[in-house]
Amino acid sequence: MNTIVDSAGDPQIAIDHHTTEPPYEQVRRQIAAKVADGTLGPGARIPTVRALAEALGLAVNTVAKAYRALETEGVVETLGRRGTFVRPRSLDRDAAAAADAAADTYVAELRRLGLARSEALRMVEDRWP
Questions:
Q1: What does the pLDDT look like over 39-89, one tens digit per residue?
Q2: DSSP tag of 3
Q3: What is the per-residue pLDDT for 112?
Q4: Distances from the Cα of 99 to the Cαs of 64, 91, 93, 112, in angstroms?
Q5: Angle at 109 (CA atoms; ends 106, 113), nearest 5 degrees
Q6: What CA–CA distance (Å, rounded) separates 61 from 45?
Q7: 23-86 has which fold?
Q8: DSSP per residue, 14-76
Q9: How does strand 45-46 pair with strand 84-86?
């Protein structure tokens, strides 16, 4: 689903006011969990601090604190007025090596077939979800 609000704009995270866990930590933990389980994929835009605070009935500073913590952890990045987005995941050494090998194979095969770089890139972009 790639969002933390549903189609009506209601948050898909919940704040438990009867726990000792601070609200900002509940927001941080739940967003981080959605990133970890793939509900929020790389590049997913998360709501503005103000919008999420309003939807959850929290102070803006509370949500801002959660977003700052997520940014420090490398989970999200804020791109100025464009918004806050889930950061692409870093590949471990084995995954990076496998991705490099797959790219080398792809490039070699398309060169063998006589395709131009622009056509090869278009083919990848057309197939990327």
A1: 888 999 999 999 999 989 999 999 999 999 999 999 999 998 899 999 987
A2: -
A3: 95
A4: 35, 9, 10, 20
A5: 135
A6: 19
A7: Arc Repressor Mutant, subunit A (1.10.10)
A8: ---TTSSS-HHHHHHHHHHHHHHTTSS-TTPEEPPHHHHHHHHT--HHHHHHHHHHHHHTTSE
A9: antiparallel
Q: ∠ CA 9-30-81 to the nearest 5 degrees? A: 55
Q: 119 with 111: CB under 8 angstroms?
A: no
Q: What tokens were used for 61? A: 């500073």
Mean pLDDT of the chain: 88
Q: Where are the domains of the chain?
A: 23-86, 93-127
pLDDT tens per residue, range 85-108: 999 877 778 888 898 999 999 999
Amino acid identity for residue 117 in this structure: R
